[in-house]
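Could you join me in thinking about how sequence relates to backbone shape in a protein? We need material for that, and I hope you will provide a protein of your own picking. Label the sequence line and the structure token line clearly, so we can match residues to local backbone shapes. Would you write everything just below, so we can both look at the same thing?
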Amino acid sequence: MTEDKQSEFQKLAEKARNCRVCEAMCDKTAVLSELNGNLFPKVLFIAEAPGRQGADRTRRPFSGDKSGATFQKLIDSINLKREDIFITNTVLCSPRSATGANRKPTKKEIKNCSDFLQRTLKLINPKIIATLGSVALEALKTIEYHQFTLKNNAAEIFDWNGRILVPLYHPSPQVIASHRREHEQLADFQSLAKAIEFSKEQGRVK
């Protein structure tokens, strides 16, 4: 079973690396490999897109930039290790503005990449999903419709598509400065810790 999953994941990652559907990102390479994490994770995180200074450069989600440093603090706060999680993105390549800065992916780019997200979730089959930011939470609607919003439902624990879902804010400097301070995000992650503990009690997570 482990070998089958690894083989299927490698095929999916190769397909993602060869994808050139989005015109604005034809010169970028999808961030999807063994560096994304454990294929049998306690939690699968879904973020927005690889950052210019982060995953697009390091090939490892949430590493090499300020968002990554904050994310590490957040998972450390609930004793969640990198080797126990898997991280993917709504859009697997790094969207850039005309000046080369990070930008939010377009609806078309999100739709183009939705099959990769759906196939990743199906393959890994996580018991717990944590979305990081509104883009990731919204993207889940393409798989199974929901009415959750980050504004109203952040850090709440839901059943979604047969899984536990915890919507969380993105740990980017911009979000921390304008929407959700770091101490608030640390409090939010306590809900994720509760979800993990609940899942253990239910026999979903070891």
Q: What stands out?
A: The first helix runs from residue 2 to 18. Residues 134 and 151 are 9 Å apart (CA to CA). The chain has eight helices and five strands. The mean pLDDT is 95.
